[in-house]
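dumping this here before i forget
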Amino acid sequence: MQRKRRNTRGFTLAEVVVASAIVAFLLLALLTTFIMGRFATQVAKHRAQATNALKARVEYLKGLGYNAVDLMSSVTIESGVPVDSVRDGAAALTGTRTTTITDADGDDVLEICVQITWQELHLGQEHTVTEQIETLMAPR
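structure:
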């Protein structure tokens, strides 16, 4: 009597389901990583552009000179400051720039703090992002 040999080719349904679940999990993790990486890159780009706008403001104030800056208002708030590159004459992303000028200790050295705050949209939620730069200005 000859035994029939069972065909061992192919995969069972359980093996296919487990393999599919593993692949789906890995693809979901990869997609999540991609989305988070894209958001981090976008925020880094905007932070770099905001830092450039902050440095430009500080250089502008330095160019005015100590006497002119000393006479300025202690706090200046500007809205609609471009954070992202300008497209078709309008900024793609804008924020609020706050310039604070103080002489807290009365030594005639002005402390200048320039800050930009804007909203980043990620997965339908807004995240507040702030970048600031500080410098000192003394009379010559």
